[in-house]
Each structure stands twice: as structure tokens, then as C-alpha cells.
Amino acid sequence: MKEQNKLLEGLPADFFKQFNTGNDFTSFMDALFKRGVEEMLAGELDAHLGYQKHSPSPGVNKRNGTKSKIIKTTKGTYSIDVPRDREGSFEPRLIPKRKRMIDHIEDVVISFYAKGMSTADIGRQINELYGVEISSSTVSNITERVLIDVAQWQQRPLDSSYLVVWLDGIVFKVRQDNKIINKCIYIVAGLNTTGHKEVLGLWINEQESASFWSKVLTDLRARGVTDIIIACSDNLKGLTQAVQAIFPETVTQLCIVHQIRNSLKKVPYKNRREVAQDLKYIYQAANEQEAAQAFFGLEVKWGKTYPYICISWKNNWDNLVPFLQFPMEIRKLIYTTNVIENLNRNVRKFTKNKTMFPDDEAVMKAVYLAIQNASRAWTQPVPNWPLIANQFLMLYPTRCQIIF
329: how many CB neighbours lie within 10 A of its CB? Predict the structure, then answer.
């Protein structure tokens, strides 16, 4: 602002008297804007060629006239003369080649869509920002190109080995055959051999089943995954059987936190704290033998009062206690599905304004964009990565190809 004021102070006192009407001043400002852009482009070309206009050329490449280009801004439409070079290697940063204002608007539309705004709200926001009117159907058409990104991302090759994968799903209401039904987007995230988390893929289905999970895991194998050390999930229907069928060497671990929540669901408030403490003796045990002793104590104490708790732990025991065979740092990674649940919360944050999706493609677009936004934070390896990496190497020396 200070620099702008200095420029104004340098103008003659009667400079603005030459403008008789507002239109005169507007025309002057338009011409000034056009001239300013063209001069900046000329400066870019000087830097690209390595010499100024009318100076001897140090190389073979030289100026080659100009080409008119229409640009749209919030102030209006302008015809700009863009300088060219003989080799065609000049790429102006101010006005990139093959880049139009509509391209920028499309990027903004997709950004708004990723943040959960409705198509109608996006249209209104674009009108306020750029003075451009776009309909809800136009917004939908613009976001269609996201489906190309989704398809490419979903088919990309994966690493051959993952130390841990987390599997979970989110339910959305989707219109199908003139009915609104529940559909689930299933998400698989993995910890790769560099210590980074990544989302491996998304799948949509109406019902959970062993055959569906087999399809998901077969897809992962087809994309290059040959080994998964540990698979963590809630007690998802058919998942354990599917994992054992496709990746027979994989350790399957059920989420302890989900098991505890389900156990305490029907326990009255007066006993909840005491039951929770007795459950803690199980999952905080040093090893499986101590955990079994703690469970025996729980069964003796609460088995008659809350038999469903003991039945649930018995039925799922083999998939609840595998984490106890691992060092503490790995236990913290696998005893809960917090990694993918945090991701799901971020997805919910960006899709909460959408009470219903018109079709499968719409929900896939929204979830994909929300995941891309949320996973930007996954730039660093997991905490204690060097220690965890060495622990995996000691436990699975022939299966791990760790990259430090």
C-alpha cells in the first residue's frame, strides 16, 4: 500500500482531470492493465532468452513476434499480445500456455466439491468470486473429470509388501433404481516399507461378505501386493476368512477398542468402570498367557451377570490377542484401527453436507477427493519408525524389505 501511495504522489496534480466520465477512467485502467501484463510478459521473455529487446542475441533462439490471447479476469475480458520465441520453448508463467480462466475456475470448483459443498452452493460461490454463472449440472460435469483420476489412482501399481493394512468402511445414502439405500465405501490403508501410510484403494458395495472381501484382496494382489504382514480391522463380516484365503501368512488382528466398546454397550453405568478395569487386565497383559488368566478372572466375576461379554471374547479370541506377540511399538500400531478411523472422520467432515448421493460415481468422487485432502498430512514416517522397522526385520527377516 505504501508503494502504491508513492506512485500516486508522483503523478501530476491535474492527471485525473483528463477523465470526463467513469467510462473514460475505466478504459484507461483497462489499457493500463493490458500494457502492464504485456510488459511483464516481455520481461519474462528477456529472462528466457538471456538478452533484452534490441540487444545482440547471445544464442540461436530469438524473438518471433507475438500471438494474441484472450484472458478472462474478475475485471473483464482482455486481448493480450503474448511474445513468442522461434524455438517455441518460452512458457510464460503469468499466462501459461493452453491455460484459460475457465481452467482455473474448474480447479476451484473441484476444490469446493472436495470440501463437501453442494453443487448449488458452488455455483453461487463461483458467481460471487468470478462473476461467472454456472449451473449445478455444469458443476457436476466439471467434477466428472475426477472420475478419470479415481480410475487411474485405483488401478495404479502397489508395493509388493505392506507391513500393516487397516480395513474399514463408511456408509452413505445413495439413490439406486429410484430408491435411497445404504451403500458402503470400503477403504484400505497400508503402512509401506518406508514407514509411510497410504490409502491403497476404495471399493463400493451394498453388503459385506467373504466374497466381497475376497474381491478387494484379489484386486490388491492383482496390483502387485504379494505379502501383508498384519491386517487390522473391526469385526467385519467375512474379512478374516478372505484374508486367510488370499494372504494365508497374514496375521489378522481385530480392533481391541471396538471390542471393548461392544462389551460395555449393555453394562449399566454403576458397573461399567469396574468391568472396563477388568477388561484392561486382558488387553494390557504382557503376553497371551497372562491375558488368558485375566479373561478367566473376568468370566468368573461377570460371566453370569453379563454372559454376552464372555461369549464375544471367546468367539473372537484368536483374532483379538495376536498383537500381544509383538513389541510395544508395533502393538500401538495394530491393536486399534485408529489410523483409518481418523481418516474416516476427515471424510465425514467433507461429506457431512451431502445427505444423499445421486449415484455411485458421485459418492466415489466425494470420498476420493476427501481422502486426497486428508492424506496430505501423511508426509512423515510413523513415530518411532527406525525402531519399528528393526523390530519387523527381526520378526520377519525373509519377508521384509525395509527402506530406511
Answer: 17
Which range has the worst mean pLDDT, 77-91, 121-135, 291-305?
A: 121-135
Q: Within 10 Å of residue 115's Cβ, how many Cβ atoms?
A: 16
Query: Once rounded to an integer, what is the mean pLDDT over residues 175-185?
Result: 92
Q: Which three cell numbers stand for residue 363?
A: 459418492
Residue with cell 504522489: 9
Tell me the H-state helices in 196-326.
Answer: 210-222, 239-246, 256-264, 269-283, 288-302, 307-320
- Looking at residue 9, its pLDDT comes to 61
Chain centroid to CA 219: how far? 20
Residue/partner pairs of 243-249 with CB below 8 Å, 24 or more apart: 243/213, 243/217, 245/214, 245/217, 246/214, 246/217, 246/218, 246/221, 247/217, 247/221, 249/399
Q: What is the gyration radius of the CA atoms in the chain, in angstroms?
A: 30
Q: Which residue has the higher pLDDT, 149 or 290?
A: 290
pLDDT level of residue 66 (50, 70, 90 thresholds): confident
Closest among 73, 71, 95 to 83, alpha carbons compared: 95
The 10 Å Cβ neighbour count of residue 59 is: 9
Phi, psi of 171 (to 5 degrees): -95, 135
Calpha distance 279→289 (Å, rounded) = 15
| Number of Cβ within a 10 Å radius of residue 48 | 15
Q: What are phi and psi of 399, to 5 degrees?
A: -105, -15
The pLDDT of residue 70: 74
C-alpha cell at 398: 525373509
Cα→Cα distances 385→166, 199, 329, 388, Å: 18, 19, 9, 5
Looking at residue 190, its amino acid is G
Query: By 3-state DSSP, what share of the chain in percent is helix, strand and coil, each rounded to 5?
Result: 50, 20, 30
Rounded to whole angstroms, the Cα distance separating 164 from 231 reads 6
Cell 511399538 locates to: 329
d(CA 210, CA 184): 15
* Res 72: pLDDT: 63
Does position 197 have pLDDT exceeding 90, yes or no? Answer: yes
CA neighbours closer than 13 Å in the CB half-sphere of residue 279: 23
| Residue 48 · residue 90 · CB < 8 Å | yes
